[in-house]
Amino acid sequence: MNNMTGFAYLAAGLAAGLAVIGAGYGIGKLAAAAMEASGRQPEAQGGIRVSMIIAAALIEGVTLFAEVIAILMALK
Amino acid sequence: MFGSTLIDSAGSRVASAANVVADTARALAGGSSGASGGNWIIEHVSDAHVIDLEPFGQIHLPQFSPIHFAGLTIDMSITKHIVMLWIAAILLFIVMRIVARSYRRSLVPGKFSGAIEMTILFVRDEVVLPAIGEKGRKLLPYFLTLFFLILFANLFGLLPYASTPTGNINVTASLAVIAFLVIQVSGMVQYGPIGYFKGLVPPHIPIFVVPIMIVVEALGLFTKPFALCVRLFANMIAGHIVIFSLIGLIFVFGSIFIAPVSIAFALFIELLEIMIAAIQAYIFTTLTALFVGMAIHQEH
User: Fold this and answer.
1) What is the pTM assigned to this prediction?
2) CA–CA distance, B151 with B223 (Å, rounded to integer)
């Protein structure tokens, strides 16, 4: 274990945290838009809920790319 | 300081996972307890040649020597994830046989068969037919198998002594390859092999955009199944790593008083995992149906 190991772990943690900021912000905006649309038109709630879940899973998929890279960084 | 407040305010389970993994690895790297640090988590999550039934001993799985052909080395030994995948597949087959047989006996199904029928109708009416149209009926067996296999395989990882088959990137990669083949073949059956590739580029665009569009669409053919693969794998692995990290906190702190808190958090994450398992199965099926629909109806 050389001197740079602490920095490498710090970098991995920072990478994970930064990736999650983007996901949290994006999914937050998505949920806000979904709530507003449900409020405007309560009959469409089923379709809005389905679209919201699909979009949230897609955004989270991108985040998890970054998480996998962070875990790989922490392991090397 | 600034970084840690940012991470705290993000507050997502996956940020804590990577941090805790790094912490656990660093703290236990000196080898204070039996297994060392981050390796303990990675050992439990990845594939192995033995099935560990902890207090009862281990089952050693047959290990075949690697086969060399065409410059590749393929190791065909049976490992833990393969056995779990087979058990999940056999369980799926048995459950579906029971459901099908209960329909032969009487016209009105029992409660369990009714629940499975509801799920099948949900996949057919909400996922496959809206995305593909009437041609989806021919592909319906594939989508139903895909949905239920991923659902069973994901949920399998939550049982004691079992591990998640879809937590292995090879399993999700093969599912993605099969999905890729289904998408391309259904597009080619509809439009002919040359017509399908010609139809990838939208018709009415300026001539200087066409080369870029060709590259973008061709890459898009490959990135979409790749994203399916990595999304499913990462979701499953992230959940398990968080649970292992929370339990590993007990070893990091070395005291028994952290145990109730740690187990409570791990239980909460486990319940979240059940929801994530079902959602990921649904997402994989929905996106594959969407891509097949896009391949069959190429009018933008």
Assistant:
1) 0.79
2) 23
